[in-house]
Amino acid sequence: MPRKSRKILEKIVCHHMVQGINREYIFETNEEKEKYLALLKKYGKQFEIKIIAYCIMNNHVHMILDTERIQNISDFMKQVNSIYAMYYNKKKERVGYVYRNRFKSIPIMTREQMHTCIKYIHMNPVKAEIVKKEEQYKYSSYNDYLYQTGFINKEIIEFVFNSSKNYIEILKTIKYKNLNTHNEKSNVEEILNDFLIHEKTNLLEIRKNNQLIQKFISHLNSNQYKFSKLEIAQILEISKATLYRRLHEN
Fold this sequence. Notes:
2 domains, about 10% strand, Alpha-Beta Plaits
């Protein structure tokens, strides 16, 4: 079940994450991203959900959702994800699960937290080195904010920024933070996600490929990320002994 949030400005606001099984690409083509986006628009209206921010990446989606009833979010996510899963399985001629697990839901308590989360979501394709600037990525709400298109209108802007005046300047000056959504493990999970997207691979492949594992460790070291071998093994879903063996195999 999604976690219940307190109310912010008399509304329920949560950060939601949906991820492909084994972190596989489930939104690889523009057609697939457009399909998911269309479902967000259709069922957002049906379940009275306001989409404050979103970013559809190749293997996951981030969203900030606003509603008056927490049950609306659960119903909305179930409908969107089940219909997309049927579409994806039919298109790929496959069966089985599409998503890694049920969607994650993190409550947003303050406007400052909301700003940080919006920045984090819009920076996903930049951190994954898909684009150099937020406005270059088509499947996020960043340009919706700049031009008041898509999901973003004056009402949402006034809710997010407490004013519609000079909001673009505020949007552009929000500082990026690598969100630690649950615990320290979440940071390495996000780093792994970016790595998989950049390398155009998935978790199953990296677990079988010694060179990819070694490349991921080198990526962590070169960027001065400090994680233990146990944390890395857990996020790769292998044992610590297996990780050590992989690192020392040619």
